[in-house]
Design goal:
single chain, 408 residues, alpha+beta, Outer membrane efflux proteins (OEP), elongated
Amino acid sequence: MLTLVAFYYHPDLDVVRAQWDVAQSGVITAGGHPNPNVGFLPEYSTNAASGISPWVLGFTFNVPLETGGKRGYRIAQAQQLSEVARLNIAIVAWRVRSRLKTALLNFYAANQTETILKKQQAIQEEIVQVLAQRLTAGEVPLPDVTQAHISLKQIRLALGEAQKQVAETHVQLANALGLPVSALAGINISFEFLEHIPLVADLPSQEVRRQALFNRPDILAALAEYEASQTALQLEIAKQYPDIHLGPGYTYDQGENKWSLGFSVTLPVFNRNEGPIAKAEARRKETQARFTALQTQVIGEIDRTLAGYRAALENLEIADSLLLFHKKRLQSVQALFGGGETDRLALLSSQAELESTELARLNIFVKAQQSLNLLEDAMQHPLQPLKPFPIVPETDPRTKEADKNEAQ
């Protein structure tokens, strides 16, 4: 739902939609036929015979006829460039979605860190109280109490930084949605999408690479650019064939009606459009090279991010096992405390260790999610099969909604 909100409001998409409108108008321009020309050539005879009009009225017409299929090549090139602009909407939409997910992850990490640090602060305050009582009773040395106070202050500093991060990531989330931060006031954000993490076994490298190379919109746009450069070369080759200009004319010459039929064509004697053809061919080679470079880059990104995601999952598995160990240990200490076999300080220390492990596990979990985001960015497609990727509106949905409301 938040992705749909971003697609609805984010101004970056308004820019590329407007660029697509410009490209579509280019198709109309390319399909236009050249207009004929008309000329009026009045003449006045100073020695005309008496009784005969001294005026000679002449009209000329110039009707251009394109040859070599130039109009068809222009239309095809404009259509391919329009397709590049349309695919650019999908490219920017993915960037919007990627920034949104990053903002959500940062917001989640800041909130969870704040929650854990608040628990740590409460536990450490109890530890300070217990040690202060034992110091009074002469059961612990002063350095132990001092160290506990230092740890409490460090936790408070970390908590203040976490609260700052919560405020900043809240603004970051609003910016990712294309909304003012006031629009998120009182809104509860669900982080359910973070609960599912794809397993490496579900991501065979060959299949991931194939999906990226077949579906990434920037690769499809690069192919469309190559087709446009190929068509541009064909257009320049077609310009070797000169256009024909028909020039019918009419003259009213002192009472006589005179008709003429003109025909003109540019003779390709000194210039057969070699320069523009060579330039178009060079641009086609450049486009081909850029496509090959992009394809190689994508393959490298897939392999690198997939390896990073595998390593992140392994670290997360270790962190989960360590967290489970500390939970079991706390249960044992609680049982001993309930039976009177250990004191409250040991219980508080075990709780503090568990919260520290929770915080460490959170950091590793966030890194795993960041690795997943990088892998998704390399594929430009989500890997979490909760819901399909929403359709990107190719026209401004706010304008359509306004028109609908006005019609009602």
